[in-house]
Specification:
The protein has 16 helices and 4 strands. The protein is mainly alpha-helical and 396 residues long. It folds into 2 domains: 249 residues, no CATH class; 119 residues, abc type-2 transporter like fold. Strands 2-1-3-4 form a 4-stranded mixed sheet, sandwiched between helices. β1, α3 and β2 form a beta-alpha-beta unit. The longest helix has 31 residues. The protein is elongated. The two termini are 43 Å apart.
Length: 396
Amino acid sequence: MNGDAKRYIKFVAFKQVFLRECKRYLKDPIYLFAMFIAPIFCYVLFTTLMYSGSPKKFPAGVVLEDNSKTARQIVRNLNAFGETNVIAHYPDIVSATRDMQRGKIYGFFFIPRHMSKDVNAQRQPRVSFYTNNSIMLAGSLMYKDFRMMGELSSAAAQRQVLYGHGMTEKQSLAYLQPIVIDAHPIGNPWINYAVYLNNILLPGIMMMMIFLITAYAIGVEIKDRTAREWLHLGNDSIFISIYAKLLPQTIIFTLMGMLYNVYLYGYLHYPCNSGILPMLIATLCLVLASQSVGVIFISAFPTLRFGLSLATLWGVVSFSISGFSFPEIAMNPMLRALANLFPLRHYYLIYVDQALNGYPMVYSWANYLALLLFMLVPYFLIHRLKKALIYYNYIP
């Protein structure tokens, strides 16, 4: 048999497996859910959930024992902050604490009795604030507002004293703030939580769906005892069988990845300083690397439930260990090394370099190489998978 005939036979085998896989998608609703419904639902959910960029106007309270003009001005200024909404005034700390424990407010600001008189008499009064940090985001943002208000109140009191000593406004400001801070947040100057989270949450969810559906597509062949039929249709070649089976998924998930890239960077105008093309290439690499990891799971544990369990575990841990929620440099050295075994970690580093910093693609060569290595690892396990397809007897 000459080379052309062999290539034709391989092409026919590839086409047969490809069409067989497409027909399975139409019969099994799991494919529809994992490849279309779940990703699109998450795209819409997370982007609309954080549409405003960051939470606004957390409910807060004040305990106002001093009813002077200065104290009332402090309350008005506090209510003017973007994250704080003063919804209640309390007669004492006990009642304010009770409402904070019940979840009605996230914190309260305490202004003691005779505060303005103590300021004028230079007796150094003390204002206090209490925040509920069991809800970390709300507590942190409210702590920031309360602390800033405390510092502003202190500065305002000191300014009145300096005015009393005959200083001008310019002289008093130079004394109160001798060094002016000019802050420039890099990458996300708006401190937008949607930009911070969605750029990793959306590809991370898609990656986890790829893990699951890849392991499921192969594992269900073993479970339903159709693996030999599938392999025979692929001319008894494990490579043709795997490539033809996964190609429809590759196409669909790549399109879904292009969708979230266009949605984030084209429609929502998230920062993308290197242009959208590098992010599309990174997304394609993530899709291929994630499919390879799914093949690794089902090859190492050729049982549907084990493969899916490992895929779920690896996908969930990816969000924590990738470094976008907790800095990688602060992790245990063993975990820092382990983070390299997760494709999302490398995608995240590419995103920071390309989209946020606008560096050339060559700057992220190590991360692209890591994603390529994920694609190569299945070649070392593929023959183990072939044996499982032929000889493994599935036990429910």
